[in-house]
Structure formats: structure tokens, C-alpha cells
Amino acid sequence: MHIFGKILGTFFGFLVGGPFGAIFGLFLGHQFDKARRLKLAGFNSGFGSGPSQSERQAEFFKAAYAVMGHVAKAKGQVTPEEIQLATTMMERMNLHGELRRAAQEAFREGKERDFPLETVLERVRISAGERFDLMQFFLELQISAAFADGELHPSERDVLHKVARGLGFSSEQLEQRLKMQEAAFRFQHGGAFGGHSKGGQSHRSSDGWQQASSASQLSDAYKLLGIDSNSDAKKVKRAHRKLMNEHHPDKLMAKGLPPEMMNVAKEKAQEIQSAYDLIKKAKGF
Predict the structure, then answer these.
(1) Which of 126, 194, 198, 231 is the right S-S partner for 47, CB 3.0 to 4.6 Å?
(2) What backbone phi and psi angles, to 5 degrees, belong to 26?
(3) Cβ(87)–Cβ(125) under 8 Å?
(4) What's the mean pLDDT in 99-113?
(5) Closest CA to 245 of 272, 218, 222
């Protein structure tokens, strides 16, 4: 906890102005503590002075893990699944040594009670240069963290709405992304194409079970692309093209995505492509 500024501000404020001075001093001390926390967490690149590409990428990286920790803390206690998600993310990004320690430290910072979420998100927007694709990637990363245990807690949803607003997304846009991510979660954990089960068996004795499983996965594929099952070939292709354009790893990299997050972007693009391939096969185009 960072309360040094609050204590000093309250003390000197009371000496100068009594109870009202103490309140004002508490406010000033709180602002001092927030600034100090940002500096200690590494969120002090000084965007107004024109940071370099590498500095913006470092800022984005640290902010992503810090907000991830904040989302994980939303339920009051970080669960083993959420800690595992952070670890899994680090492994997917192939983080080792100093980078891994930086991610762990940022995650811990995000769990602090007085974590300055709004300030960090504002810096992310400035760092991203208002690039929609980058901020969308950032938001989707947080949504993935919230779905670590396969469900979304109401308090996590509330925090995600704050994150979305801080990044410039509407509530409707967030809810749409939540539906898509929920479908993506089921799509990822529902077995591979071709009827493979979680136990590794290629077929079940019950054709009805296979058909139901295939239908469920196809339904999730549509939701993952943000369309319904009645969509014609033109609409399916348009949705696929739009999402692939937004999530193309090389384009994201060119816009400032940290190189450590390239693998995550590739996996997302592959997920979109897999859903599209399944729909394309089902519709016969």
C-alpha cells in the first residue's frame, strides 16, 4: 500500500487548516501516492515528450499485465485459475528473466487496492495513439483474463466495463466482445474439428452425441465471428475479413504491439480462421 503521501498530506493539512485542511491535504497526498505508484510500476514514460516505439511497447506491455491483475482481483481474491492464466500468458509470450519478472510485478501492482485504473488506461490510449486495433487487442486480453475459469463474475463484468470506457469503447461494444469471447472459450475447449473428444477418442458410439457436439461448435463459430447462423456467404466472408484485418499480427506489430505479444495475436488470428473454415465447410462455399 502506498499511503505515505496521504499521511503527510493529512498531517500538514491539519496543522495549517484544521479539519478542512486535513481533508484537502488527504486529497493532495492521494494524488502524490498515485503518481508515485505509477512511477514505481514503470508507467512514467512521459508521453507528451514523444516516446519511442520501444517505450510505447514497454508501456503497453506493463499496462496489460497490471490491468489483468486488477481484473483478476475484482472478485475480492485472485483464484488459482487466474494466477495460472497470467502464468500461461507469460509462457505463450515466451517471457523469461527480466521480462517475466516485469510482468509479474505489473500483475501484482494491478491487484493493489488503490491501483489507478483510469490513469493507466488513459496512458494506454495515448501510447496506442488512439489506434482502434491495439486498444481492442488490449481489451480482449482483459476479457480473456476474466474468462480464466470459464465464467464471468458480475464484479469482473463491472471492472471490464470500466476498462472498456477508459479505452473509448461503449457498453454495447463490450457486451458484443464478451459474447464473442465466451463463444471462443467454448470453441477452444469443445474439442478439435472432426469430432475429437477431450479424452482423445476420435469417435463416440452415439451419432446423436457427435451431431449435437458438432452443432454446438458450429454455433460457437458463428458467435466467435459476431454473426448469426442465418448469415449468407457474403456476410460470413465480410465478418471474417474484418476480424482478420483487425487481428492480423503483422499489422498489429506495425501499429505498436509489443513483440512479446505476437504469439497471442497469431493464436487469435488462427482461432478466427478455424471458426471461418468450419462455417465455410458447413455452408459449402
Answers:
(1) 126
(2) -65, -40
(3) no
(4) 91
(5) 272
